[in-house]
Design brief:
6 helices, Alpha-Beta Plaits, alpha+beta, 139 residues, 2 domains
């Protein structure tokens, strides 16, 4: 698995338009064979900062960076960016979500005082700012 984390700093005035600007790129990447996830988050401390967490199967990353939508995004994004994005890229052993892994995650959430919402319970999603200060997941 290849895991990539990218931190984008938008120019003032562009932060409210950023997700619209990258919408086609996001949808097209999520539809790629071998894409495991492609998720945007936004800093709650700096409204002009966005974090992209993406993961690919080992053999899918090269096709991603050679795709037409990637090439177009590289042309579209610079006009909205205040500086060059910061990128972390790592290759890991294959990661599978197993029942045991989900249990460990739930246990860790309980240890943090966060409960997972149950279907039909009326509970809301956890306050992720307690778990990862400064970042919240965009819906």
């Amino acid at each position: 698995m290849i895991l990539i984390i990218v931190k984008f700093k938008t120019k003032p005035g562009w932060s409210e338009w950023w997700l619209d600007l990258v919408d086609h790129f996001t949808r097209a990447t999520r539809a790629e064979p071998g894409n495991l996830w492609f998720e945007w988050s936004r800093s709650v401390q700096d409204r002009d900062e966005f974090i992209l967490v993406e993961a690919f199967e080992d053999d899918a990353a090269e096709a991603h960076v050679r795709s037409d939508h990637f090439e177009q995004a590289m042309k579209d994004m610079p006009k909205a960016l205040a500086k060059t994005p910061l990128i972390i890229n790592t290759k890991n052993r294959a990661v599978r979500t197993t029942r045991c892994a989900r249990r460990r995650c739930r246990g860790a959430m309980r240890n943090l005082g966060v409960s997972e919402p149950r279907a039909g319970s009326g509970q809301t999603l956890p306050d992720w700012s307690r778990i990862a200060p400064g970042v919240r997941r965009l819906q």
